[in-house]
């Protein structure tokens, strides 16, 4: 069978760069094996499969080239960019069913915001555990290394400065080993340059050595900076993808209650249609 697949780039900066994802619309007969094969054939970090839902506007499933994951920020933003491109969006608020929850999507002008789960804070990891992952002298000891999730678990690693972040050389086998040990997607490294927050993301356990833009990990990072370091912003702007020559911007908005506790997390960005591909897929048995 021939399958139509759209490709979008999400979290783009000035409609350039960003992180590409495959998007498959309303192909309800596809098996899990076929979805995995499609994701592998496309070769992007994630591919989103959209279908009808009984409890939300759409149902979303996400596949890496290796396996299914519960959530993916850039593939969601990319999917709504495709729906916008195809003139299939008629309102500013949608809901999506994912494997672990129903989430809200808010469209504000040309920026798409995706609701995340409330943050969960897990283990704090000692610096010496990461000693073989990259040069541990680059780690900023003023901030603890911690696992945080707003949908997917990442190890958040502070780096001393932008130059060291951009030039460090990751040992992907060691990062894979640590990721497996702590049951996380990967490592999200970040640093500050005045008001800028710059990031790199490594997920070799999922066959994604480095990603140009990651929504869930930056959602977790915004919550971490707010909760643990009292960094409060109306909109957190995270820059990513420079080392891959694909500059990206990820926006995060936090909604808090009168006790200053995080009630809702929204990750947003801009996306654009890249191309349409036609794949030949083996029929399901």
Radius of gyration: 18 Å
β-strand amount: 35-45%
CATH H-level superfamily title of the largest domain: Diaminopimelate Epimerase, Chain A, domain 1
The largest β sheet comes out as: 18 strands, mixed
Structural class: alpha+beta
CATH fold topology of the largest domain: Diaminopimelate Epimerase, Chain A, domain 1
Number of domains: 2
Q: Any low-confidence stretches, pLDDT <50, length ≥5?
A: none
Describe the structure.
With 285 residues, the chain is α+β, with helices and mostly antiparallel strands. The chain has two domains: 2-116 and 270-280, Roll (Diaminopimelate Epimerase, Chain A, domain 1), CATH 3.10.310; 120-269, Diaminopimelate Epimerase, Chain A, domain 1 (Roll). Helix content is 20%, strand content 41%. The protein contains five helices and 18 strands. It has helices at residues 32-42, 73-85, 162-167, 172-182, 215-229; strands at residues 2-10, 19-25, 47-51, 58-63, 68-69, 93-97, 102-108, 111-116, 120-125, 145-149, 153-158, 186-193, 196-203, 208-211, 236-240, 248-256, 262-269, 271-280. The protein has an 18-stranded mixed beta sheet that branches. Strand 10 and strand 11 (153-158) form a beta hairpin. The longest helix is centred in the C-terminal third of the chain and has 15 residues, at 215-229. It is globular, with a radius of gyration of 18 Å. The mean pLDDT is 94.
């Amino acid at each position: 069978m021939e399958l139509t697949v759209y490709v979008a780039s999400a979290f783009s900066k000035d409609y350039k760069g960003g992180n590409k994802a495959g998007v498959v619309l309303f192909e309800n007969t596809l098996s899990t094996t076929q979805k995995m094969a499609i994701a592998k054939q496309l070769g992007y970090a994630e591919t989103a499969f959209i279908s009808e839902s009984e409890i939300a506007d759409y149902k979303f499933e996400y596949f890496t080239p290796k396996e299914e994951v519960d959530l993916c920020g850039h593939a969601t933003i990319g999917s709504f960019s495709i729906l916008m491109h195809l003139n299939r969006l008629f309102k500013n608020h949608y809901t999506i069913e994912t494997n672990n929850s129903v989430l809200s999507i808010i469209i504000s002008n040309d920026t798409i915001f995706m609701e995340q789960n409330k943050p969960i804070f897990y283990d704090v990891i000692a610096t010496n555990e990461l000693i073989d992952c990259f040069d541990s002298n680059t780690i900023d000891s003023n901030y603890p290394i911690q696992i945080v999730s707003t949908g997917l678990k990442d190890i958040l690693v502070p780096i001393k400065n932008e130059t060291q972040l951009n030039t460090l050389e990751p040992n992907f086998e060691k990062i894979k080993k640590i990721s497996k040990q702590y049951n996380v997607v990967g490592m999200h490294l970040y640093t500050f340059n005045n008001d800028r927050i710059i990031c790199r993301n490594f997920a070799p356990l999922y066959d994604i050595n480095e990603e140009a833009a990651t929504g869930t990990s930056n959602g977790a990072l915004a919550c971490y900076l707010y909760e643990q370091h009292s960094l409060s912003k109306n909109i957190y702007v995270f820059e990513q993808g420079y080392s891959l020559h694909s500059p990206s911007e990820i926006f995060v908005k936090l909604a808090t209650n009168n006790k200053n506790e995080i009630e809702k997390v929204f990750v947003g960005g801009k996306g654009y249609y890249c191309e349409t591909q036609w794949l030949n897929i083996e029929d399901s048995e």
